[in-house]
Amino acid sequence: MRPATEAELSEAILGSKALVVQGGGTRTIGAAVGEVLQTSGLSGVELYEPGALTLVARAGTPLTEIEAVLAGERQRLAFEVPDMRGLLRREGASTLGGVVAVNASGPRRLQVGACRDALLGVRFVDGAGQIIKNGGRVMKNVTGYDLVKLMAGSHGSLGVISELAFKVQAVPEAQLTLVAERGITEGLADLRKALGSPYDISGAAWMAGRAMIRIEGMAGSVAYRATQLRGLLGDWQEAAGDWAAVRDVTPFAARDGAVWRLAVKPTEAAGIIAALGLEAICDWGGGLIWLLDPAGSAPVRAAVAGLGSATLVRSLTGQSTPSFQPEAAGVAALSRALRAQFDPRGVFNQGIMG
């Protein structure tokens, strides 16, 4: 199914018992069951006001189209959308709705927030076929459910997004990366020190024995902050930084093995990685860890028990481990209640989140 309007989308939902909601099919993890409903028919930019830093587009709009429109005005989606096609071994074109459905966010999240923090408004169709709108074109406080934030990261389990409103960001005048050759313990300690400083960094990552810090903004400010950080940290040097590799987890893309995404306290990262003995890429000062598990048998969830969460982003053939971290009883009850509210017939992406 490929509806082209919200009315067609509503009819498709009401006429189905189980749907797998799909944008470009480039980001989905987990194992949903049902008939595929493609949102790519809901495509096009509805409104773009560069002076107001506001963009409204339909959910099936290709991400490349959005990025091209913004680039024409030297603007961007600030949260640095990852491209997961290499890691997940997928083809196709990522869509704006798919980005929101998984809350896809890159290294700049530590400065500007995640995808959900750039969302101003959302339109979607729920499991009863109702067209629901929440939010608008400016940031404001809301009462009741904040559906804008709720839909981001819901993996299509609450409704099918049809339209989105975003705040966008001007491309900064200058960008600079500082790097240092560091072991993981020392490297993450330096990154935490930088993150705790007043020098407003937009990326902090460790990969293959190299720690990296990114600074963005007005040229004079970038130069000043770089000087101050070098004084704080020591022998860090200006060099090229491969932020796309961190964002897209490129080093693990062509290699065999399961891939895990861990969210933990940055102070716990080095210990968890040492305990598991797996190759790692660390983002956000160690708060986000990507792990390559060649045999697919490492006790990853046991290692993070009580310290954070672990998502199995890419599994091995025949591996039965759930993709998403099992929820605590109270959280699971809340999740069931939300799904019952927005999808009372159990139509959307059943099985994808356990």
Short description:
By secondary structure, this protein is of the alpha+beta class. It contains 14 helices and 17 strands.
Helices and strands in order:
Elements: H1 6-14, E1 19-22, E2 35-38, E3 45-49, E4 54-58, H2 63-71, E5 75-76, H3 85-88, H4 96-101, H5 109-112, H6 115-118, E6 119-125, E7 131-135, H7 147-151, E8 160-167, E9 169-170, E10 174-181, H8 184-195, E11 203-207, E12 210-217, H9 219-233, E13 237-238, H10 243-248, H11 250-253, E14 258-264, H12 269-276, E15 279-283, E16 288-293, H13 300-304, E17 308-314, H14 329-342
Parallel strand pairs: 1-2
Antiparallel strand pairs: 3-4, 4-8, 5-9, 6-7, 6-8, 10-12, 10-13, 11-12, 11-15, 14-16, 14-17, 15-16
Kindly describe this structure:
By secondary structure, the chain is an alpha+beta fold. It folds into three domains: about 5-170, 2-Layer Sandwich (Uridine Diphospho-n-acetylenolpyruvylglucosamine Reductase, domain 3), CATH 3.30.465; about 175-245, Alpha-Beta Plaits, CATH 3.30.70; about 250-315, 2-Layer Sandwich (Alpha-Beta Plaits). About 30% of the residues lie in helices and about 25% in strands. The strands form four sheets. An eight-stranded antiparallel β-sheet has the order 13-10-12-11-15-16-14-17. A five-stranded antiparallel β-sheet has the order 3-4-8-6-7. Strands 1-2 form a two-stranded parallel ribbon. Strand 15 and strand 16 form a beta hairpin. The protein is globular and about 65 Å long.
